[in-house]
Amino acid sequence: MPQSLMAFLAMMIASIAAYNQMGSKAAVYEQMVHSEYELMANAVVIERMEIIAVGTDFDDLDDLDGDTIVATFAAGDLNEDFTLTIVVQYVDDDGDPSGVPTSQQEVEVTAANDHFTMPLVVHSRIFSE
Amino acid sequence: MQLILDNISAIMIGSAVILIVLSTQFQAQRSAVEQTIAYASKQSTLQTGVSIEEDLAALGNGTADTVTDVQTNADGLTTVFEFWKQDAGGADMEVTYRLSAGNKVVVRGDSVQLYTLDRFENDVWAGGGGERVRFFALDMLDSDGNVTLSAGSARLVRATLVNVYPFGEDNGSSVFQSHWGITIRPIGLQN
Questions:
Q1: What local confidence, expressed as pLDDT, does residue B171 receive?
Q2: What are φ and ψ of residue A33, in 5° steps?
Q3: Predicted pLDDT at B191
Q4: With B161 labelled, which of A38, A110, B15, B133 sits at a CA distance of 20 to 30 A?
Q5: Which residues contact residue A60 at a Cβ distance below 8 angstroms, ignoring those fewer than 6 apart?
């Protein structure tokens, strides 16, 4: 009987160690994948921000407020879609939101992906008149 | 023989425990190797990315010409991207990114083409090498974000890079891919 208990204990400890190892490995893989998606999201957000910077007049920036765009990170066979949400608001000289129009607007672009619950990347830039 | 038969249960359980421990140890070592490769891959990709970003930011700034040659292969990869910038001394310098096909590696039965990215200054090799690139593209974009082949209408340059680091052999092999991209608004392209 003591021998059986010891054997059972040894099996249990070995199984727990193996389970923990697998869990740790899965967490590492998850983090690696998340990191790659962040870099891809970063690329499409910067692209959108630059397109806004060269193609939109200051007076038309607020028209973009609330826009949702699907942007694709394309690299050969890989085509990963990201949903970009644009928020535009007037800010004062300190960068704080302003209730009245000022000479500065803050454009915030947020990237999300279907594989992740939380947004991956948020970029904001202040444009002056 | 009698001794073995008397303790057959203990021997079987002991063997099973040893196998589990060895397997766990092997998995831990493989995981550590993969993490190291992933880290090295990402570091390499980001360093290349920073170099490209700094290069493109100075594109056409103070020079007579901007982008003078762009060539793309059938798979959509940029094989030649030639542009002008000023060197540290203020002299005009022609910079060329040249992508050349290298070896193929087989990953779980699929053939993966690797490329080498080299950088030239006035046609003299100035960096790059290593068959680590799976995808590389430098696209010129107009003010609406559409790809354009004309430097005259280009306002932005989009860089996309995917580095690969295969590891393992045969059926157990896999490949770690490191993605990077950025869109630059070079001063030299602002009319």
A1: 59
A2: -65, -45
A3: 63
A4: A110
A5: none
User: How near does any CA of chain A get to the CA of B16, in Å?
Assistant: 8
Confirm or reject contact between B38 and chain A (CB < 8 A).
Answer: yes
A98-124: burial string, b at 16+ Cβ within 10 Å, e else:
beeeeebbbbbbbbbbeeeeeebbebe
**Mean model confidence pLDDT for chain B:** 88
Contact of A76 with chain B, judged by CB distance below 8 Å, is answered with yes
- Determine the distance in angstroms separating the CA of A124 from the nearest CA of chain B, rounded to an integer: 15
pTM: 0.86
CA distances (Å), A81 to each of A70, A112, A117, A121, B169, in order?
A: 6, 9, 15, 14, 32
Structure tokens at A83: 């949903």
Contacts of A73 in chain B (CB under 8 A): 160, 179, 181
- Are B104 and B131 in contact by the 8 Å Cβ rule? The answer is no
Domain ranges (residues) in chain A: 2-128
Largest CA distance in chain B: 94
- The secondary element (H helix, E strand) that includes residue B103 is strand B92-107
What ipTM was estimated for this complex?
A: 0.85
Tell me how far apart the terminal alpha carbons of chain B are, to the nearest angstrom: 92
Residue A48: pLDDT over 70: yes
Across the interface, do A10 and B17 touch by the CB < 8 Å criterion? yes
B31 three-state secondary structure: helix
In angstroms, the separation between the Cα of residue A99 and the nearest Cα of chain B is 30
Tens of pLDDT along B130-188? 888 999 999 999 999 999 999 989 999 999 999 988 777 665 677 788 999 999 999 88
Task: Please give the share of chain B, as a percent, with pLDDT higher than 90.
Answer: 51
